[in-house]
Design brief:
This protein is mostly helical. The chain has one domain. The chain has 2 helices and no strands. Helix 1 packs across helix 2. The radius of gyration is 10 Å and the shape is elongated. The chain starts with a helix and ends with a helix. This is Putative effector of murein hydrolase LrgA.
Length: 39
C-alpha cells in the first residue's frame, strides 16, 4: 500500500514539474494521472 501511494505522489510530482516546464494550461495532477495511466 505504501509503495502504491509513493508511485501516485511521484506521478503527480512529475506531472506538476512537466506542466511548469512547458507552461501548459493542464493542471499538474491531471498530467500526473495521465503519466500513471500510460506508464
Amino acid at each position: 500500500m505504501l509503495q502504491g501511494l509513493f508511485i501516485l505522489l511521484l506521478c503527480q510530482l512529475l506531472g506538476e514539474l512537466l506542466m511548469m516546464a512547458i507552461n501548459a494550461p493542464i493542471p499538474g495532477p491531471v498530467a500526473g494521472m495521465l503519466i500513471l495511466l500510460v506508464g
